[in-house]
Design a protein that fits this description.
Protein name: DUF429 domain-containing protein
InterPro entries: DUF429 (IPR007362)
Oligomer: single chain
Helix content: 40-55%
Radius of gyration: 18 Å
Number of strands: 6
Strand order of the largest sheet: 5-4-1-2-3-6
Number of helices: 11
Number of domains: 1
Largest sheet: 6 strands, mixed
Low-confidence stretches: none
Length: 254
């Protein structure tokens, strides 16, 4: 199995892609690219068994409705609500709120934070995948699943904050050390120095690990009414098992 992790930013310079090959009870990092353009991302997804993208796959449905109503001049504030209370569902998707309930972490708001720029780029990538015959199920059921590295790391008992940017290279190195200790079956090989130097590369590797969890059915999935909303907003797949299950579960007959 080949899984791909994509740490998607608004521009190629901060975008990283990682390829993990899973075989013989090992996960081997066979390629990492930092500065990935749209064409490379599309090619990586097309070649993978599963790809994990660290970026919202859509906007909150209520935000879309709000903008449409505002354009027509018919915005209505729900009765009995004021301030942030009525804006919560405009800023956060259903999956963002579920992630907060389950992990205590709040994903960046795709409608109110700068990550919206990355999502615009992501929308173009998803459209190109569909054009090439690989339509994306934003609920995570197809070749692509939305992932959130910080939440994955937290669920796997690893450091999930404080390792971003050049000023925190020591903490990034510590995260890589602890990741390799927790997953002795993970081989970073010649790309280990890059992972220690680039948090984008490391997040791409974590996203590829999360893609493996999704491929094995070891993640949260939308239930009931969540499924309909997730089809348009996207769904963050959270790991439901320890990290080593990515190897042990994959080695069992299915």
């Amino acid at each position: 199995m080949l899984t791909v992790g994509i740490d998607l930013a608004a521009e190629a310079v901060r975008t990283a892609v990682a390829w993990l090959d899973w075989s013989a009870g090992r996960a081997r990092l066979v390629r990492v690219e930092v500065g990935a353009d749209d064409e490379l991302i599309v090619e990586a997804v097309m070649a993978a068994s599963k790809a994990g993208i660290d970026c919202p796959l859509g906007w909150p449905d209520r935000f879309v409705d709000f903008v449409t109503a505002h354009r027509a001049g018919h915005v209505r504030v729900p009765e009995g609500l004021a301030g942030r209370a009525w804006r919560r569902d405009l800023a956060l998707r259903v999956t963002d709120q579920v992630v907060h309930e389950q992990t205590g972490l709040t994903p960046l708001s795709v409608s109110a934070d700068r990550i919206g720029h990355a999502t615009m780029r992501c929308a173009a990538v998803l459209a190109e995948l569909a054009r090439r015959g690989q339509p994306v199920d934003r609920r995570g059921g197809g070749a692509v699943v939305e992932v959130y590295p910080a939440a994955c790391l937290k669920r796997w008992g690893l450091p999930y904050r404080g390792y971003k940017r050049t000023a925190n290279l020591t903490e990034l190195g510590r995260l890589v050390d602890l990741l390799l200790e927790a997953a002795p079956w993970l081989e970073l090989g010649e790309y280990e120095p890059l992972c220690r130097a680039s948090d984008d590369a490391t997040d791409a590797v974590v996203s590829a690990l999360a893609a493996r969890a999704s491929a094995l059915g070891l993640v949260t999935v939308p239930a009931g009414e969540q499924a309909g909303t997730a089809a348009t907003e996207g769904w963050i797949a959270l790991p439901t098992t320890p990290l080593d299950h990515l190897i042990t579960a994959g080695s069992k007959p299915r």
